[in-house]
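Quick one:
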Amino acid sequence: MTARKPMLILIAGPYRSGTGDNPQALAANLARLEAAAWPIFQAGHVPMIGEWVALPVLRGGGADSIAHPLAAEVLYPTAERLLQHCDAVLRLPGESKGADQDVAIATQRGLPVYYSIDEIPALGQLPATV
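Output:
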């Protein structure tokens, strides 16, 4: 039997939805996603937000804003690739096509989907792996 290991948990929720790509609204949505990172970390896990990966990739591809046409080739595909490495998803409230897609992918892969930080088991509460 091996030791329990931290889960890599994708935090999924509204980022671009309803913002009209307004930079202040995007920043507020990212801050809301990031607010969930600390409690996940405190529970012994590794929080992940797709935009933490996708936004630098987008800038690296020459996009100067989230409205750039390259965003369609980067945002959702980044989350899909990340979900190949994640152990669970935390779905925050709010309308979001991307977050709903993350939940669908996680469900297809048999990953747990949590709808509240309180549902995420602390590291010490996870069953040991064989």
